[in-house]
Amino acid sequence: MxxxxxxxxxxxxxxxxxxxxxxxxxxxxxKPGEVFGLIGPNGAGKTTVLRMLVGLIRPTxxxxxxxxHDVRADFENALRPVGAIIENPEMYKFLTGRQNLAQYxxxxxxxxxxxxxxxxxxxxxxxxxxxxxxxxxxxxxxxLGIAQAIxxxxxxxxxxxxxxxxxPQGIQELRQMIRxxxxxxxxxxxxxxxxxxxxxxVCDSIAIINQGRTVASGGIASFTQGKAASYRFxxxxxxxxxxxxxxxxxxxxxxxxxxxxxxxxxxxxxxSLNESxxxxxxKVSRIEGVTRSLEDAFLELTRGAxxxxxxxx
Amino acid sequence: xxxxxxxxxSKIVAQRRFFVVMALLTVIAILSALTMRGFAxxxxxxxxxxxxxxxxxGFAQLLFPLLIAVIVGDIVxxxxxxxxxxxxxxxxxxxxxxxxxxxxxxFFVSVALVCYSALCIYVALGAASGFGSFSTPALxxxxxxxxxxxxxxxxxxxISLLSVVSVFLLISTVAENGVAAVGLCMGMTVICSICMxxxxxxxxxxxxxxTFFEQWQIAGQxxxxxxLTGWTIGGSIAVLAAWIVICIASGIAIFQWRDVKS
Lengths: 313, 262
Ligand SMILES: Nc1ncnc2c1ncn2[C@@H]1O[C@H](COP(=O)(O)OP(=O)(O)O)[C@@H](O)[C@H]1O
Ligand SMILES: [Mg+2]
Known about the structure:
The complex is a heterodimer.
Chain A: E1 8-17, E2 20-30, E3 35-39, H1 46-53, E4 61-66, E5 69-70, H2 75-79, E6 82-85, H3 97-105, H4 113-122, H5 138-150, E7 156-160, H6 168-185, E8 188-193, H7 196-199, E9 205-210, E10 213-219, E11 229-235, H8 238-247, E12 251-256, E13 261-266, H9 270-279, E14 284-290, H10 294-302
Parallel strand pairs in A: 3-8, 3-9, 6-7, 7-8
Antiparallel strand pairs in A: 1-2, 1-4, 4-5, 9-10, 11-13, 11-14, 12-13
Helix pairs in contact in A: 4-5
Chain B: H1 2-13, H2 16-43, H3 47-50, H4 57-72, H5 77-82, H6 85-89, H7 95-129, H8 146-174, H9 178-202, H10 212-215, H11 233-257
Helix pairs in contact in B: 1-7, 2-7, 4-7, 4-8, 4-9, 7-8, 7-11, 8-9, 8-11
Magnesium ion binds near residues 46, 47, 87, 160 and 161 of chain A.
């Protein structure tokens, strides 16, 4: 196998809007066929990163190549295998859905009417495609946005918060479609979202971005492993157990008054805490390991200097 | 490039205001044909002899530019305001091609608009005072037939139109907002039409004659209604060509380099 160039190679990209640094030294790679999540709270810099990937704005420093073609120096070749939605997919309000798609189809050679029909059916707009898009709901516009992005069977799909405006069923369908496109056509996909659970089930790997910096990246599994372990203790006297745990340098993750349970976290062995509790006369009826959720990792990583975890539902 | 120009033209003509402008033009052309009728009747001239005047004077300097401003003034800025520009610019098509296709489309639509205006004048005037013959020699305009005079006048008007759309596209590229861009194009045209005569009156400086606005009347060189003295057709073409090159070069340069954030 020859070394295939990365679908996306973002090398140390930074962007300032005036004096505001929106993105600071972000680097990541997405392999062909990989589904990659760019996750961060509102204002983290996701859209700014995507704008740089497709050449809408030029990085203040750093560079981007798509499939080995530099976006600035070799724009047409870099963008040829790409489909994208950046922020809201605004289209021409005075045209119908189909006329809008036809506009984009004419910008590439060889897109047939059959291909347009097939894409329209795939996004579930077949019965409304001949209406002016002023009559579309937000969800329908989002579907049409996805249609224009996948019309030409791209090898790289960039979707900026694609679940905006979709109902839960639409979100579910979108996830399935993304996974299907990645698995059946080997399409690389970059998804951005401020909602972790939107993407965690479809992504192979993720990068978490906060205040313009990547704070973590890697395979999904790496976020839930190798960290301090958590344990859930069900005890007879919750308040005393909490105090004792604190004294033993265990971190209290949560406590549940009704179930008389507390979740604690530490590098120490749980048996040592159990021993201490029993010695202090607190009956322990159950101990279980708790897998650290990705959500916890995300919250921890994005708990920024200004505490901005806004936008998490 | 063909597909790109087709796209741009289809976007212009799919908007309702294109038809509003065309309807307005129809009314204005018919009304001016009817005012010309008295003049034509007194001189005993026909529609074939008068239609070439529809390429000069207030038509070329004010009416056409204002109508063109309404139709294409926001052709770049409007897509920025509406947010449609970003989906347009993420295709494997360099930005300069998109800009040029917008210019060509704006030019084609403007040419169609002016040809339609000529047709309206011809039909309205012909119905009122006779169509006449294009093969009559045009004695006051050098002796060739009115067919030749008409073609030369409208031919030069095409150069004028290209400079109009080049200036407007540059304005549309610099402006951040579609409505503002249309306003700027129209405002500039109106202000020029008010200020230029005043400047001519108070100053004898020659630079005013080198503005695109003064040269937009270039077709008047054929119909003996060009307001400036001492200008040849070649001189006027050279001035307009220089403006066209300057506007296209700076328009593309700005469009190519700007950040598209909305
Ligand atoms: N056009 C712009 N002009 C100035 N600042 C901007 C602009 N767009 C975004 N920003 C700022 O850049 C930062 C990152 O924004 P953005 O990339 O839109 O974040 P996200 O997509 O993750 O919500 C924010 O602080 C935002 O206020
Ligand atoms: Mg965003």
